[in-house]
């Protein structure tokens, strides 16, 4: 059954559901997806504090102080960070205070050390304007009861720090989908094997393991297997704890393209076996007992693009993400793309910002069995179906890839 790309995407997205949640120690949570909405059980900062090393004072009392006309106060207390003040501030007094220390009662401002001169128990304020601004108020960033981070948020560096500040040492995150990767093909060797004539190394599993990780899931590499229905089925029956099973190779119409037969033998319900896109037209999807089976093309570029377009969004949803799609922008072709396009085509590309606009250049070479173009790619040009050759200067749709 051949389907349009958008139909295939919808079929998969409708079928998958979000993984259960698990508690994970915070230091292992970076880039995980939060499975709970975090409500602050405290104000932050938890007390009024000083943002400076200086003197806590009554702001109005020193407002007019200048070097020529300083205001001299009596130092009655000293509060380093981590300690608490023992005395309130009253007229004529000051408390030496360090950054992060709680403000004494009665203080309405802080003067930084550089604007003071101290001598024994006395401190002279040389510049007193704006002292009231030098206070961090309790709860000024977060108030108790406030929703701080929503379920489905990716735990970025900011969220890591915030969860720590709130004492969430073991937050709930969504379990990562586990994705089994199997390379099929009698010509395929493990990457440590010496090459012999007619054989090539299994690059697909390693490329896909990176794509799986980038989609927030966990890759389980099961190795490579010859073109043999029983052997491929046996591989697919292992790793029962995986949620998604991806094969590469054997997805087309050749004598040894066996994945369709394997699905039949295993009782996997076929969802589609061809998608209208280039590269990556031969791609199977099936479902059995709630687990997803994907048969990607053996051609590296085709496998990568099918994964990107079909599997990645499904994994993002399973992983608890709220947004499943990459950002898309319009850019101007810096060089032509001469191929006439029937089915919607994805082209490895590099885009960059100029003063005038964003330019994008198709990378060489784009063969379906080739990957070199992907090395420099930071984007994919989306060429619409039935498109003529595109000249330089044409505005095109561009999908931005991460980290490039
Ligand atoms: N008569 C037709 N032939 C082909 C068609 C077609 O429509 N009619 N489609 C072509 C297209 S398009 C593609 S894409 C490929 C898809 O082939 P398969 O998915 O069946 O993949 P294989 O034939 O097994 O392998 C294709 C190619 O990729 C190499 N390969 C396989 N596995 C790996 C791996 N793990 N790492 C690196 N490279 C791998 C393999 O050696 C082949 O060269 O079919 C076209 N043919
Ligand atoms: O459809 Mo093939 O997947 O062109 O590379």
From TrEMBL:
Which CDD domains is this protein grouped with? Answer: MoeA
Q: Which SUPFAM superfamilies match?
A: MoeA C-terminal domain-like (SSF63867), MoeA N-terminal region -like (SSF63882), Molybdenum cofactor biosynthesis proteins (SSF53218)
Gene3D superfamilies on file: MoaB/Mog-like domain, MoeA, C-terminal, domain IV, Molybdopterin biosynthesis moea protein, domain 2, Molybdopterin biosynthesis moea protein, domain 3
Which keywords appear in this protein's UniProt record, sorted alphabetically?
Magnesium, Metal-binding, Molybdenum, Molybdenum cofactor biosynthesis, Transferase
Supply the EC number(s).
2.10.1.1
TM ranges: none
Transferase among keywords: yes
Q: One MF term from GO for this chain?
A: molybdopterin molybdotransferase activity
This protein's pathway reads: Cofactor biosynthesis; molybdopterin biosynthesis
Q: Which Pfam families match?
A: MoCF_biosynth, MoeA_C, MoeA_N
> Which cofactors does this protein require?
Mg(2+)
Reactions catalysed, semicolon-separated, are: adenylyl-molybdopterin + molybdate = Mo-molybdopterin + AMP + H(+)
Residues covered by the MoaB/Mog domain: 180-317
Return the broad EC class.
transferase
The record's section on NCBIfam families has:
Glp_gephyrin, molyb_syn
Q: What does this protein do?
A: Catalyzes the insertion of molybdate into adenylated molybdopterin with the concomitant release of AMP.
Its family remark reads: Belongs to the MoeA family.
What protein is this chain from? Molybdopterin molybdenumtransferase
Q: What is the scientific name of the source organism?
A: Sporomusa acidovorans (strain ATCC 49682 / DSM 3132 / Mol)
């Amino acid at each position: 059954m051949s389907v349009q790309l958008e139909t295939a995407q919808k079929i998969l997205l409708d079928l998958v559901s979000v993984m259960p949640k698990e508690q994970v120690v915070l230091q292992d949570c970076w880039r995980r997806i939060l499975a709970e909405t975090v409500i602050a059980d405290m104000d932050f900062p938890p007390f009024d504090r000083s943002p400076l090393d200086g003197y806590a004072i009554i702001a109005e009392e020193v407002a007019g102080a200048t070097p020529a006309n300083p205001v001299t106060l009596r130092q009655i207390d000293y509060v380093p960070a981590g300690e608490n003040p023992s005395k309130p501030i009253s007229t004529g007094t000051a408390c030496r205070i360090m950054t992060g220390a709680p403000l004494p009662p009665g203080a309405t401002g802080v003067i930084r050390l550089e604007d003071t001169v101290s001598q024994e128990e006395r401190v002279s304020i040389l510049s007193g304007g704006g002292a009231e601004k030098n206070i961090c108020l309790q709860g000024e960033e977060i108030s108790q009861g406030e929703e701080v981070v929503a379920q489905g948020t990716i735990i970025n560096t900011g969220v890591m720090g915030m969860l720590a500040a709130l004492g969430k040492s073991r937050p709930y995150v969504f379990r990562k989908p586990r994705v089994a990767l199997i390379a099929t093909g009698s010509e395929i060797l493990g990457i440590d094997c010496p090459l012999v004539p007619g054989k090539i190394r299994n690059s697909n599993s390693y490329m896909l393991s990176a794509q799986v990780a980038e989609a927030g899931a966990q890759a389980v590499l099961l190795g490579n297997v010859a073109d043999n229905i029983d052997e491929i089925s046996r591989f697919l029956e292992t790793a029962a704890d995986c949620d998604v099973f991806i094969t590469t190779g054997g997805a087309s119409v050749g004598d040894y393209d066996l994945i369709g037969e394997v699905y039949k033998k295993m009782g996997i319900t076929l969802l589609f076996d061809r998608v209208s896109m280039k590269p990556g037209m031969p791609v199977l999807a099936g479902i059995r007992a709630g687990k997803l089976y994907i048969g990607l093309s053996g051609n590296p570029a085709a496998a990568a693009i099918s994964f990107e377009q079909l599997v990645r969004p499904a994994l993002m949803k399973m992983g608890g993400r709220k947004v499943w799609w990459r950002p898309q922008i319009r850019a101007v072709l810096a060089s032509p793309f001469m191929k006439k396009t029937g089915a919607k085509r994805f082209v490895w590309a590099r885009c960059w910002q100029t003063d005038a606009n964003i330019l994008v250049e198709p990378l060489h070479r784009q063969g379906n069995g080739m990957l070199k173009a992907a090395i420099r790619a930071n984007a994919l040009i989306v060429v619409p179906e039935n498109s003529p050759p595109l000249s330089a200067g044409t505005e095109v749709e561009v999908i931005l890839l991460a980290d490039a």
